[in-house]
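Hello,

Our lab assistant flagged a job as stuck in the queue for most of the afternoon. It eventually completed. Since we weren't sure the result was trustworthy after the delay, we are filing this so someone can double-check. Below is the sequence as submitted and the structure that was eventually returned. Let us know if re-running is recommended.
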Amino acid sequence: MQRNSSAASSGSSHPKRAEKPANKDAAVATKGTDGASGTHSNQVEASKVGLQAPSSILNEGLGVSGEHIAEYIYAVEFGWGKDWDGHDKGVDGKWLEGVPRASKLGKLSAGGGPKTRHTQMNNITPFLLATMLLAGSTCSNAGSLPYDAWRLGFSAPDYMEVWIETADVVDMKGQVYRRAMSEVSAIQTPENNKGNPKGWPKKSGWGKGKYVTNADLPKKIYVRWQSLVEPQTYQVGIDIAESTREIMRTSEKTYCAATGKWTTGYRKAIAIGLAPGGIVKVWVLGPCLTPLEVMRVKAEVDPRGPYEGKSGGQYDALSEISRMHVKKFGVPYGSW
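-- returned structure --
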């Protein structure tokens, strides 16, 4: 997956999300052909490609399917190669966040001319296989849960604003869902200092978040965020216990005050509270069901600072209401 050359959205300090690359082929760009069906890569007879061993397939036989399908899926699902600057720039492109390495995955394609043989068996074979398996993952994952999807949400104490850089999920089947959640959390900032940031609410809310679709229950959740009132950058890997997953799988009959009826539901949401000092609290909850606290952990400081060290130490701005509250009352460390 290759990203556009713009590294940030206009008027924003936050990195721009990668977009799907345009369907252009370098081999025919000079002829003014934009459609994928007319590209040089698609002129290879498909039936022959399907019968060849990976080591004998030329780049021209993998151009469209390898780059525009497999790479797109891996970029969207796993975030691979999103910092490649300039789609179809070839050797003029560059890596914005350092070259690929063991801890940083890059593009699937091996590069080279159309007649170059794809000899990198260790790369192409598992990646194309994984891409095909990914297409069928929806049905297999959905069948393992008693509901369609589970939800991941985040909140912070009053005025204690945070900016979530990323929340990545690894499910029980080993699939990785990068940026399952990002940006701001749920928070209240009442005027005239009427809010109370000390401690956690007696009954946790769902928080701001998203449903993690096509996924099994989580095995681990990795979160990196900016605590704007300090300011400080924290990161934590939250290991979800089997006992927590069992709670999420178990139905419970309860009286729902909102409808005035008895209902059977599931705690299919995970709510994570983020507080200054790197304090993290985790609840599981569901519609009309009492939230259950399942974990409290302490995150570590990320020495790279905000945005993995790419912002020159500059944090996102704290709102004026929260800034004035902290200036007057400070940060109530030790209350979470």
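-- support follow-up --
The delay was a queue issue, not a problem with the job. The result is valid. The helical segments are 46-51, 63-78, 121-135, 137-142, 242-249, 320-329. DSSP finds six helices and 14 strands in the chain.
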